[in-house]
Amino acid sequence: MREQFKQQLTEIKSEVVDILRDLKTLVSQATSALVEGDLELAQQLVANDDEFDRRTLAIEDRVLETIATQFPVARDLRLLHSMAFIAMYEERMADLAANVAKTALRVTDKKGTVRAPQKLADLIQKQGDLVAQVLDTTREALETNNLELALRLPELDSPIDDLYKQFFRALAHLTDEKELEWASRMVMSSRYLERISDNAVDIGERIVFLLTGERDAYDEIELG
Fold first, then answer.
1. Which residue, of 106, 179, 205, 213, is most buried by count of CB atoms within 10 Å of its CB?
2. Cα separation of 208 and 212, whole Å?
3. Are 60 and 81 in contact (CB under 8 A)?
């Protein structure tokens, strides 16, 4: 029975890790669809959002079932609670990435033409690339129980916040009406990407708790 319990814990954590890996791909593809005007890719990503919902809800169900049947305590209970917590944030991040893909559908014409000021398109692309790196670091921190990586996440998130501010400053200098229409819709996508990174930082905080048992250690180290 104990070996079966250990196997359940391993499978639950592995699925949470796999979802983070797939989220990185989703964010990269959604950003590309937006910047490059790839309507087919954007439609595919929006359609696939339900699959992320199914997978994250399945994590919650498995956690509840395991707690009810195995009566875990101490570190095992903390692991299960943390996996359910992280799955909740993964579902949010998948929705935000799908919203980026939906924006691609709204700003791209049927010929695949995007009226995108190059500077703003470059900022969105760079932001998406950095968010993908944050997700990759989050995934590695969880997969390898790496406290140092988890503690680095706020530092990695900071440039993404800066790019969001740069986007607004660049937007203020636009004069072309069609470019302004495109950029005004892109503002929300930049915000979606920023929020994905913020959610990854929240996951990092939970990883710190998982590894140390300290709920306030993350804030203390950030302030330090």
1. 205
2. 6
3. no
> What would the pLDDT profile of 13-45 be if each residue is shown by its tens digit?
999 999 999 999 999 999 999 988 899 999 999
* Largest Cα–Cα separation, the chain: 68
Mapping DSSP onto H, E and C, the string for the chain reads CHHHHHHHHHHHHHHHHHHHHHHHHHHHHHHHHHHHCCHHHHHHHHHCHHHHHHHHHHHHHHHHHHHHHHCCCHHHHHHHHHHHHHHHHHHHHHHHHHHHHHHHHHHECCCCCECCCHHHHHHHHHHHHHHHHHHHHHHHHHHHCCHHHHHHHHHHHHHHHHHHHHHHHHHCCCCCHHHHHHHHHHHHHHHHHHHHHHHHHHHHHHHHHHHHCCCCHHHHHHHC
Q: How many CB atoms lie within 10 A of CB 94?
A: 25
* Rounded-to-integer distance, Cα 60 and Cα 80, Å: 9
State mean pLDDT over 140-168: 93
- How much is the pTM? 0.90
CA distance 67 to 52: 23
Q: Collect all residues with Cβ–Cβ distance below 8 Å to 152 and sequence separation of at least 6.
A: 137
pLDDT digits (tens, 9 = 90+) for 55-85: 999 999 999 999 998 888 889 999 999 999 9
Residue in the block written with tokens 């010929």:
111
According to the CATH classification, is domain 2-223 in 1.20.58.220?
A: yes
